Each structure stands twice: as C-alpha cells, then as structure tokens.
Amino acid sequence: MAFTRVAVVTGANKGIDLCRNEVADFNDRKGFAIVRHLALQYPASTFNNGPFLIYLTARDQARGEEAAKTLQNDTQLKKANALASDGGLASIRYHGLDISKPKSITEFASFIQREHPEGVDIVVNNAGIAMDGFDMNVVQGTLHTNYYGTLSATRSFLPLLREGGRLINVSSMAGHLKGKYSERVRFAFASSKTVDDVTTLMEGFISAVREGRQEEKGWPSAAYAVSKSGITGMTRAIALEHKQQGGTVLVNSCCPGFVDTDMSKHRGSKTIDEGAQTPVLLALGDIRGIYGEFWQNERVIEW
Is 24 a residue whose pLDDT tops 50? Predict the structure, then answer.
C-alpha cells in the first residue's frame, strides 16, 4: 500500500510495572495512547489525504511488537474501523529505536529516508526514562537519554519532515521553571535563545552535582525535572532556529498532564487517553501556526 501520510512516535510500547529500582521507560503507556489517538483522529483532521502509516518505535523489540499487535485488536480502533485491516486509513508498524544510543537514532533516520524519500509528516518524541534516587549516575543517565537523546533525535528527524509537518517533544510539568530554581537559573532558562545556551545549563547542572553543590547553586536535586526543563528550552530554541532558516515545520513541546501511570504511582487524574490529547492536537490539529511554545491541557501555557 502507498501511504500519503507518515508519522513516527518514539517510546510507544505499552509498558509494564515501573515502580522498581531501575531505569523506567515511564512514557511508554502514553506513547501507546498517542499512537492509538493518531489513528483515531486522523480521518477527521485536515492532514487526511489518504492512507496513514504510523511507526510505533521502542527500544525493547518484544514489548514494541506486542504493543503493535495489541493495537491491531484495540477495542477503540475496532469500533471506529480506524485501521486498514478493518477498512480504515491507518496502519501501525513497529520499528526498533533507542534514543540513548546515537547509532540507533542514525540507523532509524537512514531507514526512514530510504523508505520515505519524500519525507514524513509527524514526529512525536515521547521516549524518556526516570530513575530512582539522586546521585551522579542518576543525573548522567537521565540527562543522557532525556535531554541529549531527545536533542539528537530532534536534530536527526527534523530534516526528514515535509513542509508543514509537525514535531512534538513530550516534556513535563515537572520542568516548569517556577518554584524549583533560583532566580538566576530560572532567568537563564527563560532567556535562553539557542541550543548551546540550554546545553550549557545542562552541563552546569551536572558540574554542580559533581561538586555536591547543586542546591547551593540554585538547582533542585531532581534529575528528571531538570532534564524536562532542558527539553522544553531546547525545543523552543530549535523551533526558533528552524523558523529563522525559513522552515515550515511547527515544532512545539508539551506536557501530557498528570496521567495515571506507574510513574505517578497511579495518583494521576488523567487516563492515558486523556494524556494523549495535547500531543495529538499538536500533531494533527489546527494550532494556528504556533511554534516554539510549551503546551498543556490543549493550550499554550507559561513555561
């Protein structure tokens, strides 16, 4: 089948128990729901001009393949006849991708370029990790994947998007600037203009932790929160850079909200389907040409 629209969602396997003392791919259930709602909402969107292929990517092959298989029999997708196997427009395929490994990102980008030389339409960078505790290993591991991995994926995938495409980086309300940083650090984030500006902040955090002086220097002892502040700032910088170069892809970041997942210890007020709405709006909806903003609850909010 020839596909007229193509989307990529990273970190999209369904996920398992994440309340263990290890690295947790906590975004996976949200990514799974994002894939579901891209398929559900595409037919009524202005993007609809024919068959739609969604790449569900995950670093764990068994989980990724199981997620794709589960979606083939998903009750919501079956009821809506959303999938091509039921007469609909969407097809879902698993492909391996680990954003913590530069080689994996490069290989996936090369695959997309070979398979879709005309480009893709949507990229949702949802992959990320959370690690228990706080020490140098946690800080380096978290930032390596969440900040540097997302940055590398964004840099690699943005050139693959067609004119008028969408790139969404899933950040978090944990990365809000208010209440956790000193005035100096908060101002540095808010006034950052380039990726180098934001990366310098990430390096400053790592250095402060190495010295054991992060709180003295205005940083929280929270690797995940800092990584998400970095994602939001980096996404804004890339969106501005892309626009200044004449690009037409709308690049934004978002928080899905406080979603009921293992990561939130199931205290979240939103279901995973509700959490998918803002990323899917940014992917398929009429966002009036807005770029470089941070979104939550389907609207732009102050970072």
Answer: no
Strands 294-296 and 299-300 come out as antiparallel
Are 30 and 276 a contacting pair, CB within 8 Å? yes
Instruction: Name the 3-class secondary structure at 58.
Output: strand
Element holding 64 (H helix, E strand): helix 61-72
Residue 272, pLDDT score: 87
Indicate which residue of 94, 181, 224, 291 is catalytic: 224
The amino acid present at 49, given as its one-letter code, is: N
Report residue 132's pLDDT band, with 50, 70 and 90 as the boundaries: very high
Tokens of 7: 């989307």
Residue 224 annotated to the active site: yes
| Residue among 300, 293, 295, 196 nearest 250 (CA) | 293
pLDDT of residue 261: 52
pLDDT at 30: 81
Question: What's the pLDDT score for residue 269?
Answer: 60
Q: Is the dihedral of CA 214, 219, 221, 226 positive or negative?
A: negative
Tell me the Ramachandran region of residue 135: left when phi exceeds 0, alpha when psi lies from -120 to 50, beta otherwise: beta
Q: What is the DSSP string of 177-188?
A: STTTS-HHHHHH
DSSP assignment string, 149-208: IHHHHHHHHGGGEEEEEEEEEE--GGG-STTTS-HHHHHHHHH--SHHHHHHHHHHHHHH
